[in-house]
Amino acid sequence: MGRAPGLSVRLRLTLSYAGFLMLAGALLLAAVWVFLLRYVPDRALIVPSGTPDTGVFPVRSNLLRVFAPRAVAVLAFLLVFGLAGGWILAGRMLDPLTRIAEATRMATNGSLSHRIRLPGRNDEFRELADAFDTMLARLEAHVAEQRRFAANASHELRTPLAISKTLLDVARTDPAHDTGELIDRLHAVNTRAIDLTEALFLLSRADQRSFAREDVDLSLVAEEATETLLPLAEKHGVTIETCGDITPTSGSQALLLQLTMNLVHNAIVHNLPGQGTVWVDTSVRSKTAVLTVENTGENLTPQLAATLTEPFQRGTERIRTDHAGVGLGLAIVKTITQAHDGTLTLTPRSAGGIRITVELPATARIPMGSGVL
């Protein structure tokens, strides 16, 4: 938006300081004038005048003629002093804003690593500078995360495309190659690419919070997720145990179901083959609806567990199967949890495996027969 040029804030503050000082000086001189007229005795204003022949006779001096030049000199001094002092004081007062403006220009040019770090005691400018530094830190972290995510997504999407190209090149150079095997492998690769694309879309949708909220019972959501994934658990020889009472919260039914499905799926495929167990529990703690998914498995360090919610991050030396996923399962869980104003906690179990807890804001209990599935 184009705007007409105007006076700088520093100049306006300088003029304001000088004007206020001039006004204060004028009022002070006016008070002195009134004081002289009303309270100074007349004899104090008598000066001798006359000639030796006529003698000495009293004449009242012209007070205004004596007072006015001095008053003008005082006002002129106050004007110069006010302009000079106001300019210096305004510069010192506006120095934090100058530093904030410089940091803003650097951020606009793409440099998010610069920080103001305003020294001094806590005041309005210090609070503004600290808030700006916090915003820059979050922006820098967000941009770095987005760049890392874009790079990882490009790499993950390029892999199935490269495999498909290789398979097609082999089929072209070797017409006698088994067509059925080629189709099966292309189908598997294409399915993985579609799953990855849908996961990226779901991640973006949850991150933007573009969903309608409704009453949801996490216990029913957990029950639906475990029933859906029961065949996969049986295939891996994993036992699923569920428990919990009605756990009402508010949010997207589809997204919370996806969150629970991802947690249970992750607990099944990253478990002890043939003898693993998954525990799914829902409960209400104070004003919080809690979903906990816990599984047996290999030992994990807290440092490794803290990285598992990053996109395309998989645990080192974790069990890899044909159901290992696209590396976005827990990243989607984290995004959906944050979109519902909740918290996600990953805690390694001492006996092996991991405990994942999702805490969401609880709502009033959902009445029976409300139709929430």
Summed up, the domain count is: 3
Shape category:
elongated
Percent strand equals: 15-25%
Broad CATH class of the largest domain = Alpha Beta
Q: Would you mind describing this structure in some detail?
A:
By secondary structure, the protein is of the alpha+beta class. It folds into three domains: 9-111, no CATH class; 148-207, Helix Hairpins (Orthogonal Bundle), CATH 1.10.287; 213-361, Histidine kinase-like ATPase, C-terminal domain (Heat Shock Protein 90), CATH 3.30.565.10. 56% of the residues lie in helices and 15% in strands. It contains eight helices and nine strands. The chain has helices spanning 9-39, 63-108, 124-173, 179-208, 218-235, 253-269, 302-307, 329-339, and strands at 46-51, 55-60, 214-217, 239-244, 248-251, 277-285, 288-295, 343-348, 354-361. A hairpin with a 2-residue loop joins strand 6 and strand 7. The longest helix is centred in the middle third of the chain and has 50 residues, at 124-173. It is elongated, with a radius of gyration of 39 Å. The chain starts with 8 loop residues before the first helix and ends in a 12-residue tail after the last strand. The relative contact order is 0.08. Mean pLDDT is 78; it is low at 316-324 and 367-373.
